[in-house]
Specification:
This protein has 395 residues and is mainly α. Helix 15 runs parallel beside helix 17 and helix 17 packs antiparallel against helix 18. It is elongated and about 85 Å long. The relative contact order is 0.05.
Length: 395
């Protein structure tokens, strides 16, 4: 055998040996240790680690395979059965746990908790509520307590939002710095927005930005929040918007600008023009004049201004917005806004109050963002146009 062939053979032997040692080490790792690693990985996701996010699915699949392959005596340990619950509440595959239950290896005392968590993972809230509602999450092992409180909150949301909020508070207390806390903050903020509790939303949003502003889920959540605040009326005035200044200060400049533009747009289409103008003006601070962000901010701001005594300046700004800088939806919004602006200056006899086309609002395809935008914008602007055209003494 030549020296080179001997070297290749030696290297191949070393690789095989290494793989065997790795497999043996994996086999010795308990389900509890694997779920501990998963929770640590998810905490990194909450901190903004994209590599951790990319590896999450693979990690979950590995735990599922380990559950299926585990020997029956493994499940005599409550630490291991609790790990199955953590797996389910952390995004694990229900089918792996179904196979475990079918094997008959789980002690009868642990089956109710696992079945309740399985029902939750499958979206069977009635079954999950029956099995999980009476559990005191604060008395569970530390690694299970936060996920359980979060799951219980989801179950309670439809029937008792106040209790759901209290359980989210508990989940955050029990699992600080984890994906559970990050998700609990997101969910609690939206529940308070639905209740139009602007003070709680502002306070919790600041906490979210400070603690989880880099989260993998932050960008999407903040876009959703901006729309919800305008649509629900949680922010219905410039005074309410001012309550969010600590939140804005906690965001990095790019995220703050994106949030304010999203809020300005949502407020525009919802007919909350004072909020739209204030949010757009704040978003325009420090923005390059020829940027896409500047074009969007000027569009939303000018749409609000044409409905005030500052109509002429608003119209001039609306006409100067570069259409090519806007996406398709905002281009159509710009066209609609220019049409309404022209309507507002028609002679009084031809600008008599026009009824809002409610049927068009209802029938607009909810999957067609452009159609929704145009119909809602025309409805909101038309309402103001009708008031402007009404004879004195009729308001």
């Amino acid at each position: 055998m030549t020296a080179s062939r001997f070297a290749r053979a030696l290297a191949a032997t070393a690789i095989v040996a290494g793989l065997a040692l790795g497999a043996a080490a994996a086999a010795e790792t308990s389900i509890a240790e694997l779920t501990f690693d998963l929770q640590a990985l998810q905490a990194r996701i909450a901190a903004g680690d994209k590599a951790a996010y990319a590896s999450q699915a693979e990690r979950i699949a590995a735990i599922g395979a380990a559950i299926v392959a585990a020997k029956p005596d493994v499940w005599q340990s409550k630490r291991e059965t609790d790990a199955v619950v953590i797996y389910l509440l952390s995004g694990g595959q229900p089918r792996d746990v179904v196979r475990l239950l079918e094997s008959g290896a789980v002690p009868s005392s642990e089956i109710p908790l696992i079945r309740g968590s399985l029902a939750y993972a499958l979206g069977n809230e009635a079954e999950a509520e029956k099995r999980l509602k009476g559990i005191d999450a604060s008395r569970l092992p530390a690694r299970l307590a936060g996920p359980m409180a979060f799951a219980q909150s989801v179950i309670e949301t439809g029937s008792d939002p106040a209790k759901a909020i209290a359980l989210l508070d508990l989940a955050r207390l029990l699992a600080p710095g984890t994906l559970v806390e990050e998700a609990a903050l997101r969910r609690e903020i939206m529940l308070h927005a639905d209740r139009r509790d602007v003070d709680s939303v502002a306070q919790l949003a600041r906490q979210y930005a400070s603690r989880f502003g880099a989260s993998i889920y932050a960008d999407s959540f903040l876009q959703t929040l901006a729309g919800a605040l305008a649509q629900t009326g949680a922010i219905e005035s410039a005074a309410n918007l001012d309550k969010f200044q600590p939140f804005f200060a906690a965001l990095n400049p790019d995220m703050r600008r994106v949030f304010l533009l999203g809020l300005a747009r949502a407020a525009t289409v919802s007919g909350r023009f004072e909020v739209a103008a204030s949010a757009a003006a704040a978003a325009l601070e420090g923005v390059a004049a020829d940027s896409v962000e500047a074009a969007r901010g000027r569009l939303y701001e000018s749409m609000a201004r044409i409905l005030t005594a500052d109509y002429d300046a608003g119209l001039a700004e609306l006409r100067s917005v570069p259409q090519t800088k806007l996406d398709r939806h905002d281009q159509e919004l710009l066209v609609a806004a220019r049409g309404v602006a022209a309507f507002l200056r028609q002679p009084p006899e031809s600008s008599a109050a026009q009824p809002i086309d409610v049927e068009a609002v209802v029938k607009a395809d909810p999957n067609d963002a452009a159609a929704q935008t145009i119909v809602l914008a025309e409805a909101a602007l038309g309402r103001t146009a009708s008031l402007a055209a009404a004879p004195k003494g009729t308001l």
